[in-house]
Amino acid sequence: MRRAIRCVAAALVACVATAALAGAHAGLYQQVAGPAVLDTKTKLTWQHSGITTMSQPDAVVACASLGAQLGGSGWRLPTIKELQTLVDYGQATSPMIDRTAFPSTPGIPFWTSTPFSNGDGTAWAISFADGMSLSGPSSDVHGVRCVR
Questions:
Q1: What residue spans define the domains of the chain?
Q2: I want to staple 91 with a disulfide (CB 3.0 to 4.6 A). Which of 20, 56, 96, 136 is the partner?
């Protein structure tokens, strides 16, 4: 079963992350060494490209092993609050993300490391098609963007 929640400032009660947390604005990102982008507001470094799709447990392992490819250590699957900061609600069409900083992002759900609270093997994802949060079985296949 999937649950979808539109995270907007008027719906704070049901939201894990609100639109107020969304930090995607023009000029906010800087290209850094390797295929990575620095968010100058949150100080998080994001995987720029090489987006793949896989299950959530496989995504956790894949992100942890990116050091050789992306440089440095500490790569991991982002939390729901971290990934929500990439949603750009100012975009008129999908994908709802800064297309200069993340040009190859498809408008699909992306996994987070945040488990759904009922402990039934589901996890949270953020859809860049519409900026909505959703939960689903961790065995589902979604996009992966790693962070450190």
A1: 3-144
A2: 96
